TrEMBL record:
Annotated InterPro entries: Glyas_Bleomycin-R_OHBP_Dase, Glyas_Fos-R_dOase_dom, VOC_core
Signal peptide: none
Protein name per its UniProtKB record: VOC family protein
Ranges for domain VOC: 5-131
Pfam families per UniProt: Glyoxalase
Length: 133
C-alpha cells in the first residue's frame, strides 16, 4: 500500500525556538519552518523529520533519531565541543548492554557497534551510531 509513497517521522518538543537552534546551529542540519510554525528538518540522506510544538510535551523514553557515523568517537568529541552531553546513561540504565565509557560511548564488540546517546533541549533521546567498526 505505501511502498511508493514518501514518509517522514515526527516528534514533539516543548520549545520550537530552542529546537530550531539546536537542530540547525548545534547539529548543523537544514531546518525550515513548516506548516503552522513547526519545523521541517532535512537529514543528510534526504529524509525529513517533522518537529512540532506540544504544550504538554513528555520526552520520549526511547531513541527518536539515530545519526550514522563512521567515527563515533570523533562525532562525540564534536558534540561535546558544542556543549552537548553524551554521557546521559549510567551503567545501571544499560543493564543488558556493555557499559559506557567516560564519554558515554557504548562499545559492543560482539555486534560490532558503537553508540552514544544525547538529548535535545526537550529531553528527547538521540544517538550517534557506528556499525561494523
Amino acid at each position: 500500500m505505501f511502498t511508493s509513497s514518501e514518509a517522514f517521522s515526527s516528534f514533539s518538543v516543548d520549545d520550537i525556538d530552542k529546537a530550531k537552534r539546536f537542530y540547525g546551529e548545534t547539529l548543523g542540519l537544514s531546518v525550515t519552518e513548516g506548516m503552522m510554525g513547526n519545523l521541517e528538518v532535512r537529514l543528510g540522506n534526504g529524509a525529513q523529520v517533522f518537529i512540532y510544538f506540544k504544550p504538554d510535551h513528555v520526552p520520549a523514553t526511547f531513541t527518536v533519531l539515530n545519526f550514522m557515523t563512521d567515527d563515533v568517537e570523533k562525532t562525540v568529541d564534536e558534540l561535546n565541543a558544542r556543549g552537548v552531553t553524551t554521557k546521559i546513561y549510567g551503567d545501571e540504565d544499560l543493564a543488558d548492554m556493555p557499559p559506557n565509557d567516560e564519554k558515554g560511548i557504548m562499545r559492543d564488540d560482539e555486534h560490532k557497534a558503537q553508540i552514544a546517546w544525547f538529548t535535545d533541549p526537550a529531553a528527547n533521546v538521540l544517538a550517534v551510531v557506528a556499525a561494523s567498526v
